[in-house]
Amino acid sequence: MKELTEKKVFPPPADFQQKARIKSNDVYEEGKDYKKFWEARANEMIDWYEKWDKVLEVDEPYYKWFVNGKLNASYNCLDRWIESGKGNKLAYIWEGENGEVRKFTYKQLYEEVNKFANALKSMGVKKGDIISIYLPMIPELPIAMLAAARIGAPHSVVFAGFSAEALRSRVEDAGSKYLITCDGYYRRGKILNHKEKSDEGIEGLDLKKVIVVKRAGNDVPMKEGRDVWWDDVIEGKSTKCEPAVMDAEDLLFLMYTSGTTGKPKGVMHTTAGYMVGTATTMKWVFDVKDDDVYWCTADIGWITGHSYIVYGPLANNVTSIIYEGAPDYPSKDRWWEIIEKYKVTILYTAPTAIRLAMKWGEEWPNKHDLSSLRLLGTVGEPINPEAWLWYYNVIGKKHCPIVDTWWMTETGMHIITPLPGVTKLKPGSATFPFPGIKAEVRDEHGICKTGEKGDLVITTPWPAMLRGLYNAHDKYIEEYWSKYGFGKFFTGDGAIVDEDGYFWLLGRLGDVLNVAGHRLGTAEVESALVSHESVAEAAVVGIPDEIKGQVPFAYVVLRQDAKPSDELKKELIKHVSKVIGPTARPSDILFVEDLPKTRSGKIMRRILKKLAEGSKDVGDITTLRNPEIVEEIKNSLQR
Ligand code: WTA
Questions:
Q1: Last residue in a domain, options 429, 459, 477
Q2: Going by CA atoms, what residue is nearest to atom 7 of ligand 1?
Q3: Which of 385, 466, 557, 572 suits a disulfide with 537, CB 3.0-4.6 Å?
Q4: Which parts of 106-216 are beta strand (E)?
Q5: Does the residue 505 lie in any domain?
């Protein structure tokens, strides 16, 4: 830990701070009375049909925010901008993988949403019906979400890259009678037959309607009476559909996520608190201004896309980029080309993408003018200081603050994050809880001492917090409230608070090893490995050891100019020992071409662990972006 906290601190650049929306620490003072703080945000960020009677009502472990308030999420994302003369501003610039462009002003997006909302109504969709949406990164995805929200039908978006089985279990669990899907979409120049996959997923399920967007034009079978084309159902529909007046605590959406068991859990987010939380963090953490062009590279099928491509940006009248395809298609500078083309000012992406770009080399970003960028962000996993510095130097050209935002599906909004005009950044630390939020690092004995590892726990309720797990009350209690009791939300992440009060996230606790009685975050070892000049990316898992209980085993992807050798292996092991200490020494290192990753870019350490333990069955690999790598790793382990 020492070597991290001694590194350089990056205060906000003077010109950034001068123009920033939030420039001083006063907001943390204001946040001390958190109910008052969030009430003020609810007043300033959201338009209400009726205000609340009470800011917060607690019936542990259930929480209600802005009790009896009435609002509509789609109204807050669309109508109010048109009513205030901001309807001609671009809401979305969509770029297809093949270079097609579709642009939507707020007015145009409003019209599309209204037409589709009317179409849903005409098909019999009622307030409270859960609509499943299985679409790739095309404009119809946010349009469908907002149309559902407009008429009070909660949505459950299933990431398009997920398998047929994953779709099936989610549609079944949500009890959806309506599914929105598409014919196909492009990935690295090829058309993926999405309709076939969704048909397989819903086979035998009793669905009333399946609405199919025509994206790729591939030939697909349509089931008589059930399947209808999107274009046909919106044909002739009015561009006006009165938004439903929703209660603050009406369900806005379900988002399925994996927990400690194999079965995905349906995280519930309701309307008012979620809107207040995402709109506020969008404005403060990304410091959004009228002329910003913002790009979050996540998929809308994940919570990051829900909160920071759809609801957060639209509730702030922001212009966003949506990109359909892969970062390396047709070449490894596609992202940087998009930034130059649209003069993107704020980029929000994942550490894994940064490490990949690092591996490909700076020549790719250096081909493009990235001077429009003024703020960078990361999310999804701990960022190792080396990747942070590369992002800062090569992409941000040393003048863009980086907001490393820690949060999760369950929190709905940023929880631990810098405020870019205020916070002195330390590379690799997500810094401090957002104003109005308290968090601590603890274990069974109490709050951990400075520099000691423990569980990250959130000790104040926050507006966008999950309201439970769909049809799974016991699981909700067990996952989040059983370890430390009500009032102390157990995140499942390990963390350390340093002597300046900065939070350092260590990854999921499952990724925390115990080596001869010493707790060790796999992320720490990975970070140490990546700090070596030959290493592009690393994944570390714990394997059983007779003497020490567990020891770290490392998978390493080398940079293009480095060659695997026994000497290098020894050197890396020594390097880790030097950076963290001898307990962190990997028992072995395997050089690999790539790591198994989910479509959202998360390294699947569960699979790597099984492989390292020599297990033949590594479990489900259908949600991987690169399932073929599993066989390759298996083979090299046997060699
Ligand atoms: C991890 C994604 C370190 C963390 C929004 C959390 C992070 C899990 C960060 C949630 C960060 C997310 N630093 N770790 N800035 N952001 N995580 O539900 O382990 O897909 O528990 O939500 O991602 O993943 P989820």
A1: 477
A2: 381
A3: 557
A4: 131-133, 155-157, 178-182, 184-187, 190-193, 209-213
A5: no
Residues 413, 303 share a domain: yes
When the pLDDT of each residue in the chain is averaged and rounded to a whole number, the result is 93
Q: What pLDDT is stored for residue 522 in this prediction? A: 84
- pLDDT at residue 36 tops 80: yes
Residue 239 falls within a domain, yes or no? yes
CATH code where residue 536 lies: 3.30.300.30
CB of 379 closer than 6 angstroms to any ligand 1 atom? yes
497 located within any domain: no
Q: Whose CA is nearest to atom 23 of ligand 1?
A: 380
Is 361 found in the same domain as 238? yes
Domain residues for the domain of 633 are 513-638
Contact criterion met (CB below 8 Å) for 173 and 266: yes
Atom of ligand 1 lying closest to residue 383 CA: 13
- Are 469 and 533 found together in one domain? no
Ligand 1 atom nearest to CA at 416: 15
Q: How far is the CA of 270 from the centre of ligand 1 (A)?
A: 21
Q: What is the pTM of this model?
A: 0.86
Q: Is the CB of 404 under 6 A from ligand 1?
A: yes
Say whether both 447 and 522 belong to one domain.
no
pLDDT band for position 572 (cuts 50, 70, 90): very high
Domain assignment present for residue 499? The answer is: no
Looking at per-residue confidence, does 452 or 257 come out higher?
452
Residue 215's contacts (CB-CB under 8 Å, 6 or more residues apart) are 136, 138, 140, 182, 183, 184, 185, 194
Please determine, for residue 598, whether its predicted confidence score (pLDDT) is greater than 90: no
**Any ligand 1 atom below 6 A from CB of 387:** no
